[in-house]
Design goal:
CATH topology of the largest domain: Heat Shock Protein 90
Number of domains: 3
Helix content: 40-55%
Bound molecules: adenosine-5'-triphosphate, magnesium ion
Number of strands: 14
Order of helices and strands: EHEHEEEHEHEHHEHEEHEEHEE
Radius of gyration: 40 Å
Mean pLDDT: 89
Distance between the termini: 93 Å
Low-confidence stretches: none
Length: about 400
């Protein structure tokens, strides 16, 4: 026997007409095989408000809902019930002449409908069973959708966090280059200061220390200290985080990036050739663009170093074409492996043992921020990176 109606199942019937209710109740009792009043499976409400109240108190398994009640009519009735009971299946009861409402009712969240006076026990059973199955499926779908939405949000938040970590990591990597360069640039004035100190001591021991020589020693010492201090100021400026957008000459950006790499190129015996036949002005964060160039220069140095080339060369040249300022950076470090070419701008793509794979990703982000772009290709015996930034007119001041 098909036991669609469990004895534990309660059905809320929201129906203002006592005659119609009596009939429905009788059918339900038949379907339930109810023998005594103790097993009453039906809760009766005559208005929508009454129905909502009873639904809240007694948690029915199914609702049979008349669409024209004293306090609500039509599709609005379904909507109110659906909002109050998001997971309980609703079977709508329509009159003979408003059965067209049934489609709208289904759209508003009902699971099935019955036309009053035209259904028997079997039709009732079937409608209730269908409504329950459909309701359960819809609830699961809703839950899945919510979980999916939540997971998308979580992934987005994770990605944002990752980007922040990336920027931080990239800054730290650059800091290594900067410290290396400061150390390199300090060596000479530090040595000079050490010699100066020894000279003062000698002069004193040989009785040659005069007022004039003291003044000269002090002035020299001051000069060396100034030089060291300037090195620090130059680089501190590079790390300024609260930077404003300005108009600047691309040459300046190239110059700043090169000044940070100076020491590294000297140590690696890498020759640099810079061609700047044009002045191109662009708009954006000056230090950010230098940072982007720096990432490209570091890669060129790494490639030359990895190849062990004694004649390493980096060529940098500027152009102004189609309203774009273009910086091309070409090295002779052997180039990018063909199958890596399409991936070098992806985050975390690296072929280096100690690489993080964020250098070029960061560079791409910085350029996109400036409405520019970056491209990579292989040339004769190395790689060429081209950076495009929209050109603007020079600043007026
Ligand atoms: N000039 C180049 N010559 C050869 N290969 C290059 C060059 N520039 C980039 N690549 C390739 O692109 C990859 C990604 O470069 P990217 O700067 O994003 O990361 P990385 O240098 O490996 O690590 P990170 O810059 O984070 O320290 C490199 O690992 C390398 O394989
Ligand atoms: Mg890199």
């Amino acid at each position: 026997m098909n036991k669609t109606f469990q004895h534990a199942e309660t059905i809320l019937v929201v129906e203002d007409d006592p005659g119609d209710f009596g009939l429905i109740r009788a059918l339900i009792r038949l379907a339930h095989h109810v023998q005594s009043d103790d097993e009453e499976p039906v809760i009766w409400a005559q208005t929508l408000v009454d129905g909502l109240t009873k639904a809240g108190q007694q948690q029915p398994d199914v609702v049979l809902l008349d669409l024209s009640l004293p306090d609500s009519s039509g599709v609005a009735t379904v909507r109110s019930m659906r909002t109050a009971l998001p997971d309980v299946p609703i079977v709508v009861l329509t009159g003979h002449d408003d059965s067209w409402l049934s489609i709208a009712a289904l759209e508003a969240g009902a699971q099935d409908y019955l036309v009053k006076g035209q259904f028997d026990v079997d039709a009732l059973k079937r409608a209730v069973r269908n409504a329950r199955v459909r309701g359960a499926l819809e609830s699961r779908l809703r839950l899945l959708n919510e979980t999916l939405e939540q997971r998308v949000q979580e992934e987005l938040a994770k990605n944002r966090e990752k980007d922040l970590v990336l920027i931080q990591q990239s800054r730290l990597a650059t800091m290594g280059e900067v410290l290396h360069n400061i150390a390199h640039q300090w060596r000479q004035p530090l040595n000079a200061l050490a010699v100066l100190q020894a000279n003062i001591k000698d002069a004193f021991e040989y009785g040659e220390l005069t007022r004039e020589s003291i003044v000269k020693y002090t002035e020299d010492g001051e000069r060396y200290i100034q030089k060291m201090s300037k090195t620090i100021d130059d680089f501190r400026n590079f790390f300024q985080s609260a930077e404003k957008s300005t108009r600047f000459n691309l040459v300046e950006s190239v110059r700043q990036a090169l000044s940070i790499m100076d020491a590294s190129f000297e140590v690696g015996k890498i020759a640099i050739a810079v061609e700047t036949p044009v002045d191109v002005f662009v708009e954006g964060m000056f230090n950010e663009l230098s940072h982007a160039l720096l990432n490209v220069l570091v890669n060129a140095r790494d490639a030359i170093k990895a190849k062990g080339r004694p004649d390493g060369v980096i060529l940098i040249w500027l152009a102004h074409e189609d309203n774009m300022g273009i910086i091309r950076i070409r090295d002779n470090g052997g180039g990018i492996p063909e199958k890596a070419l399409s991936k070098v701008f992806d985050p975390y793509f690296t072929t280096k043992e100690n690489g993080t794979g964020i250098g070029l990703y960061m560079t791409r982000m910085i350029l996109e921020h400036m409405h520019g772009r970056i491209e990579a290709r292989n040339v004769e015996d190395g790689a060429e990176i081209a950076i495009f930034v929209p050109a603007v007119s020079p600043p007026t001041s």
